[in-house]
Recover the amino acids of this structure.
């Protein structure tokens, strides 16, 4: 039995554990069923979906870097319709909340995806705003508070589900983005997405990735992610899902102490596919060792005195709707 | 056939030529289940080593000893680290992964391989009948052709091409293939560099010989989740790690 020791409610979503599978690193969940008991995962955030299928980038798409990886998948996905018809029914045979990560290349596209996915069997939407806005010269939605606001508002208007907004770390002021997104009505925040990076093959004298640049993830980015969670947690009231290089229970605890109510495991799923199982066990052991009766007690404990936000007591407006 | 994660120990590390090694690993559960054409995904476990796993086609199994063999060429950071391992060093292995070769009644069979592409074909050939199987090997020079010894017990004829003409026919496998294809083969299996597989697949299609190819891609998860390894198929997008790595040549349109 999964007990209430690790349980958490975020934006109206009841999770058995605070451990979420991060988008793009866990496929549609079912791929991991041999190695992970999906019924004991907090939630599964599936691969980013767009309205129509997308073939992604050419050439090499992944490479290891010091304590991390670079990826340039290019948001390949089979599209909403295929997901709803062929994948969601399989995933629904498990007792696990399903969060669907969405993206678009215009505000209208985000709205259309949200609408297409406003169906039974999906528990929440996570908006990936690290995507280029084709109408604004390809600038990422997530780098501009106004563009981010329009996307969140458009999605909120077109869905009945809780909306989580996933912030890009490739900005100078993460707090202003977080505030804008909270004001636009986002029910929770995910942070962080990948950091822009690149690698050059010295022998070939060329970039390694087909797309030239890619997103850096894995343990290498953890300190950046912890810092961002810590900064944002002091300034917003909505709950935070922390991620970036989490591979051990220790790493997960670091994010929770910095103010994350839940955490997501990404890159670690790729190189150690049973990570979510190990972390669940290790967090239970931690609670037993520290005589903690509810892991949520530790959320934000590393924040400066008086700055500790109380997400779901102050702003859990979801259940009221 | 569920995939498993095994903590594995090195049993044997044997140089086959200046840059190619055979690595024998303890992996009883995988050895029991793996079929030709499938691969294992290996993680180095020393601090500071590459985070991502690397895929290796299985070259041989010994079910009684519970071991699998891979044959690899030292080419980058990962394989350099692999070459340093000695017996009893530990690794994490995920497998068996992917779809193996189609083995249903292949009839008279020609295997075509280049470089370490011959490794998965070695496992395959051990499951086919020697009386109806031949192999065509392409190499840069004769030094690379230690493969002959490995294939000898399992095949009738070995045909050889070398880029420098130091052994067999001068040129690539395509120097011999068209004439071989007129000799009544009902099935070709090819594994090697992409241009070679494409050329072989085209020649087979022209002669109406069914051809299985084994694609190689950079992979992260190896389980169909991350889409690092996809390519365009004739009917749909393909994940090399789960839809393949073995495909009918007619399924593939992007090599
Ligand atoms: C291969 C890969 C694919 C990803 N795809 C997506 C995606 O489709 N949508 C998204 O919002 N984030 C995506 N991400 C970002 C992760 O969900 C996560 O935010 C990031 O990798 C940081 O966490 P980690 O260090 O634990 O991986 C992807 C990451 C990786 C490595
Ligand atoms: S390697 Fe991840 S989908 Fe193939």
């Amino acid at each position: 039995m999964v007990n209430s020791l690790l349980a958490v409610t975020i934006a109206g979503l009841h999770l058995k554990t605070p451990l979420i599978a991060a988008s793009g690193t866990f496929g549609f969940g079912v791929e991991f069923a041999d190695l992970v008991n999906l019924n004991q995962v907090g939630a599964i955030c599936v691969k980013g979906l767009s309205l129509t299928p997308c073939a992604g980038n050419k050439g090499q798409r992944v490479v290891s870097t010091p304590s991390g990886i670079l990826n340039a998948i290019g948001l390949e996905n089979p599209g909403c319709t295929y997901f709803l018809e062929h994948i969601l029914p399989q995933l629904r045979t498990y007792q696990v909340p399903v969060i669907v990560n969405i993206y678009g290349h215009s505000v209208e596209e985000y709205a259309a995806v949200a609408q297409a996915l406003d169906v039974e069997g999906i528990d929440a939407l996570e908006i990936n705003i690290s995507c280029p806005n084709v109408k604004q010269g390809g600038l990422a939605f997530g780098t501009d508070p106004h563009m981010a606001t329009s996307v969140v508002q458009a999605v909120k208007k077109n869905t009945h589900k809780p909306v989580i907004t996933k912030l890009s770390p490739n900005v100078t002021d993460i707090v202003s983005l977080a505030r804008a997104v909270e004001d636009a009505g986002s029910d929770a925040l995910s942070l962080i997405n990948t950091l822009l990076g690149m690698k050059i093959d010295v022998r070939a004298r060329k970039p390694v990735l087909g797309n030239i640049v890619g997103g850096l993830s894995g343990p290498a980015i953890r300190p950046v992610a912890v810092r961002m969670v810590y900064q944002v947690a002091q300034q917003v009231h909505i709950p935070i899902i922390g991620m970036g290089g989490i591979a051990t229970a220790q790493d997960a605890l670091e994010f929770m102490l910095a103010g994350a109510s839940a955490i997501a495991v990404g890159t670690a799923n790729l190189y150690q596919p049973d990570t979510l199982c190990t972390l669940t066990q290790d967090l239970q052991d931690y609670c037993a060792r520290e005589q903690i009766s509810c892991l949520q007690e530790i959320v934000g404990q590393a924040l400066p005195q008086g700055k500790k936000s109380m997400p779901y007591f102050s702003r859990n407006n979801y259940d009221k709707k | 056939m569920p995939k498993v994660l095994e903590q594995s120990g090195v049993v044997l590390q044997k140089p086959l030529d200046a840059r190619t090694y055979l690595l024998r690993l303890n992996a009883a559960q995988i050895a029991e289940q793996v079929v030709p054409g499938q691969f294992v995904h290996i993680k180095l476990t020393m601090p500071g080593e590459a985070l991502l796993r690397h895929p290796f086609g299985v070259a041989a199994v010994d079910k009684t000893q519970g071991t699998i063999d891979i044959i690899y060429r030292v080419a980058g950071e990962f394989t350099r680290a692999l070459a340093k391992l000695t017996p009893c060093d530990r690794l994490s292995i995920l497998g068996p992964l992917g779809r193996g070769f189609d083995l249903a009644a292949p009839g008279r069979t020609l295997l075509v391989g280049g470089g370490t592409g011959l490794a998965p074909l070695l496992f395959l050939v051990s499951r086919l009948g020697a009386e109806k199987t031949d192999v065509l090997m392409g190499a840069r020079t004769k030094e690379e052709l230690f493969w002959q010894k490995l294939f000898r017990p399992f095949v009738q004829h070995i045909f050889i091409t070398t880029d420098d003409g130091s052994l067999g026919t001068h040129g690539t496998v395509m120097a011999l293939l068209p004439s071989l294809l007129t000799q009544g083969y009902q099935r070709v299996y090819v594994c090697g560099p992409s241009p070679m597989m494409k050329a072989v697949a085209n020649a087979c299609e022209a002669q109406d010989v069914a051809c299985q190819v084994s694609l190689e891609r950079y992979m992260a998860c190896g389980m169909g989740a991350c889409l690092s390894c996809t390519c365009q198929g004739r009917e749909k997008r393909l994940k090399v790690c789960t839809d393949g790595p073995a495909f009918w040549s007619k399924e593939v349109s992007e090599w």
Remarks:
- The radius of gyration of chain A is 18 Å.
- Chain A has one domain: 8-56+75-199+216-312.
